[in-house]
């Protein structure tokens, strides 16, 4: 064991869910211990220990040979003061990597295997490369339904689990793949106004231009502590928060940090992610929305039915009342794609604005109605009418405003990005198709969700008749480089299909 100590230095680098340490190449400890770049090391200070991935530097302006640098996350986790003495040793081998290797070789894993893996990930014993190996090994169809249950249970057990002390705690989740589908931000205030408890914790975007948390962040603070989240839900019967800071199934957030750049979103991992988060949030009743369409995440009804069975199997094993509905996923919902534009759509619906997107309003009412029917005092079939009355009367808007104020009101500006590119039809015709994947890709290339004002604003939907020169949609970006990339992508494929009278193009 190394007895030499180094001086701790805080390195202002956000390494996003990964502990990273920095040693100078001429550091005596680095030379004596035989460390290598990207190896894992154990860092100790004042009785606290963390594990980190080592980066080796040659610039004394970053760390000197007598210092150990820590990234922002690692520094916060060690909870030690800058300039204090720290010691560094080789990290113990993460034994659960043996299970990952067995999975790569096609073996079936046990509950104990998944528990060991998730506990090691939660303890930062896995580098992002090792987490990527786990995600690839368990991706696509390599998890059977029992393994999905094991993974869900193991992820659930790594973090806090909320208990609201009520028999009925509801939630809803869409599996994604449909741009602009911000129904949760309408369902929550409607259901909460009915009096049901709906503590909605959401993830940020993985492969989409915006997640619910990204869009809600336009209106209110979403990084809530467990204590604040609890107070808001108790007072207002609902919230719209990011699940990461609430420390609910934290391994899920660590895996998502790797899934996002890789574009991985397999069904088994998706089910485990959704259900572990909902159970950790204390949900007893859950409505799952599976949109189906030719460019949706689920393309065919057969696949949707198989996914529904998987949700129902895992939900039943974990004792949560779960209903799955299959919805129309043939085109984006609403007009805006991207955080600011989607937040505008949500507020237009809540304000009963005549210009509000009717499809977003209609789908939200249908989902809210189904959840309201979880209430034993509501007869089957009455939920939709109750939800519509709550929205039309302004009670949903009042509830949303109360939730926003409780979470922390932000200065709201619905003005989109400064650079705008109009996509037009080159001839008359009827819009017969809108490619969800392409529209999402265009919005992401334009800068969403990192640039909140970037995205796509749809002016035409399927079934609409257009004339030559009519604007189909607008692309917004905050930075010229993103704007130019998005423009090139649109010119290759603008995502719209017109009937035989003509095809859409850009001008």
Structural notes for this entry:
It is a single chain. Helices cover 39% and strands 19% of the residues. It is an alpha/beta fold and 507 residues long. The protein folds into 4 domains: 5-90, Barwin-like endoglucanases (Beta Barrel); 97-156, Transferase, Pyrimidine Nucleoside Phosphorylase, Chain A, domain 3 (Up-down Bundle); 170-246 and 281-407, Pyrimidine Nucleoside Phosphorylase, Chain A, domain 2 (3-Layer(aba) Sandwich); 419-498, Pyrimidine nucleoside phosphorylase-like, C-terminal domain (Aldehyde Oxidoreductase, domain 3, Alpha-Beta Complex). The strands form 5 sheets. Strands 1-5-2-4-3-6 form a 6-stranded mixed beta barrel. Strands 12-15-17-13 form a 4-stranded antiparallel sheet. Strands 7-10-11 form a 3-stranded parallel sheet, sandwiched between helices. Strand 3 (40-45) and strand 4 (48-57) form a beta hairpin. It is globular.
């Amino acid at each position: 064991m190394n007895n030499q100590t180094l001086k701790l230095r805080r390195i202002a680098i956000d390494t996003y869910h990964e502990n990273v340490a920095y040693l100078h190449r001429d550091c005596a400890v680095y030379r004596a211990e035989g460390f290598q770049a990207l190896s894992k090391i154990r860092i100790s200070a004042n009785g606290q220990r963390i594990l980190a991935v080592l980066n080796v530097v040659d610039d004394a302006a970053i760390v000197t040979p007598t210092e150990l640098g820590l990234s922002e996350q690692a520094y916060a986790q060690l909870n030690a003061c800058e300039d204090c003495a720290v010691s560094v040793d080789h990290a113990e081998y993460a034994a659960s990597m043996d299970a990952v290797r067995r999975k790569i070789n096609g073996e079936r894993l046990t509950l104990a295997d998944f528990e060991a893996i998730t506990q090691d990930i939660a303890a930062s014993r896995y580098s992002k490369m090792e987490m990527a190996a786990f995600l690839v090994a368990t991706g696509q169809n390599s998890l059977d339904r029992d393994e999905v249950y094991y993974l869900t249970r193991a992820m659930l057990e790594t973090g806090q689990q909320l208990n609201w002390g009520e028999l009925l705690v509801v939630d809803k989740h869409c599996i994604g793949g449909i741009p602009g589908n911000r129904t949760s931000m309408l369902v929550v205030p409607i259901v909460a106004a009915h009096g049901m408890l709906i503590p909605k914790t959401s993830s940020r975007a993985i492969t989409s231009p915006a997640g619910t948390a990204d869009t809600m962040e336009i209106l209110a603070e979403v990084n809530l502590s467990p204590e604040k989240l609890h107070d808001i839900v108790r007072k207002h019967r609902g919230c719209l928060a990011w699940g990461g800071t609430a420390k609910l199934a934290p391994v899920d957030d660590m895996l998502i940090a790797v899934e996002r750049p890789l574009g991985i979103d397999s069904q088994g991992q998706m089910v485990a992610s959704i259900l572990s988060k909902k159970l950790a949030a204390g949900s007893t009743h859950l409505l799952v929305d599976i949109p189906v369409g030719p460019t949706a995440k689920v393309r065919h009804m057969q696949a949707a039915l198989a996914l529904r069975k998987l949700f129902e199997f895992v939900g039943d094993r974990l004792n949560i009342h779960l209903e799955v509905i299959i919805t129309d996923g043939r085109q984006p919902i609403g007009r805006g794609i991207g955080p600011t534009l989607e937040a505008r759509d949500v507020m237009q619906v809540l304000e009963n604005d005549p210009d509000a997107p009717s499809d977003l309003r209609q789908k939200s009412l249908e989902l809210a109605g189904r959840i309201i029917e979880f209430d034993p005092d509501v007869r089957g079939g009455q939920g939709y009418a109750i939800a519509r009355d709550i929205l039309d009367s302004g009670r949903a808007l009042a509830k949303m405003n109360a939730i926003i104020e409780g979470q922390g009101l932000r200065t709201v500006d619905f003005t989109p990005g400064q650079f705008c590119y109009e996509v037009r039809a080159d001839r008359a015709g009827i819009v017969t198709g809108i490619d969800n994947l392409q529209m999402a890709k265009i919005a992401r290339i334009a800068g969403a969700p990192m640039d909140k004002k970037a995205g796509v604003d749809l002016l035409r939907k399927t079934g609409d008749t257009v004339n030559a020169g009519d604007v189909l949609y607008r692309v917004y970006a905050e930075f010229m480089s993103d704007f130019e990339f998005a423009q090139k992508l649109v010119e290759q494929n603008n995502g719209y299909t017109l009937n035989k009278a003509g095809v859409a193009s850009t001008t």
